[in-house]
Amino acid sequence: MCNRYASDIRKAGKEKDYYGFEEWSDTRINPVLGNAVLEVFPKSFGPVLRSGKSGRLEWTKMRWGLPGPPQFGSAPVTNIRNIKSPHWRALLSPTHRCLVPFTAFSEYDDASPKGAKVIRWFAPPDRGMLFFAGVCGEWYGDYGSKKEPNVGAHQLFSFLTTKANDLVRPIHAKAMPVILRTEAECEEWLQAPADRIEAMQARVLPAEALDVVPDEEAVQYAGGYLR
């Protein structure tokens, strides 16, 4: 499942829409994260949109990976599939929903030679920005490592996954992220009651909504913009 994605909002030209200014295109600095973010990895910061106190969408930064069930060690979970689990049901109310912007996401190619891990990237045909159906919450504990502990309150997010569609399945049959393409779908995700989430998760994304990124283009998702 997806454990690496690109969130190059600057490339998607959305800074004016969401921030009200265009300087980011020149400075290449994300005003939320404080750097020129491209790739997001588990436990690293990613930009997230969620409803603020005013009721309007606001940008914030969160770390990727909510703690999983205690019986499995509470290890960070980046992709949530089993929404019937009592552990995740508590986080399915609108209060805990967010939009996770992405410009590309990766999956390991199931057809890779044994022992190899070949990554394939998927992106919108226009190379713009879409959203993952995100779930978020605050967690207190150590979100670091043995070498570098990081104890405190952490704002964390994950996103839902679903069955792979006709484009993704030949490459990675197990799952793919739940993707929101339109403003209406985003609003529905943020506001719908919890009992509608299962139906939203089950929707099949049309194959034409994504491209498999050619190898010569995919190099940009390995940090090409940051060099």
In short:
With 227 residues, the protein is α+β, with helices and mostly antiparallel strands. It has seven helices and 15 strands.
Short descriptors:
single chain; 227 residues; alpha+beta; hypothetical protein yedk fold; eight-stranded mixed β-sheet; five-stranded antiparallel β-sheet; 16% helix; 32% strand
Supply the CATH superfamily name.
SOS response associated peptidase-like
| Uncertain parts | none
Shape: globular
CATH architecture: Alpha-Beta Complex
The CATH class, by name, is Alpha Beta
Q: Roughly what is the average pLDDT, rounded to an integer?
A: 83
Q: Calculate Rg over CA atoms.
A: 17 Å
The topology string of helices and strands comes to EHHHEEEEEEHEEEEEEEHHEH
CATH topology group: hypothetical protein yedk fold
What percentage of residues falls in helices of 4 or more residues? 10-25%
End-to-end distance: 27 Å
- Largest sheet descriptor: 8 strands, mixed
Number of self-contained structural domains: 1
Provide an overview of this structure.
- The structure is a single chain.
- This protein has 227 residues and is α+β, with helices and mostly antiparallel strands.
- It has one domain (5-226): SOS response associated peptidase-like (hypothetical protein yedk fold).
- The protein contains 7 helices and 15 strands.
- It has helices at residues 9-12, 15-19, 23-27, 86-89, 183-191, 197-202, 215-218; strands spanning 5-6, 39-40, 45-51, 57-64, 66-67, 76-77, 79-80, 97-102, 104-108, 119-123, 130-142, 151-162, 176-177, 179-180, 211-212.
- The strands form 3 sheets. Strands 3, 4, 7, 8, 11, 12, 13 and 14 form an 8-stranded mixed β-sheet that branches.
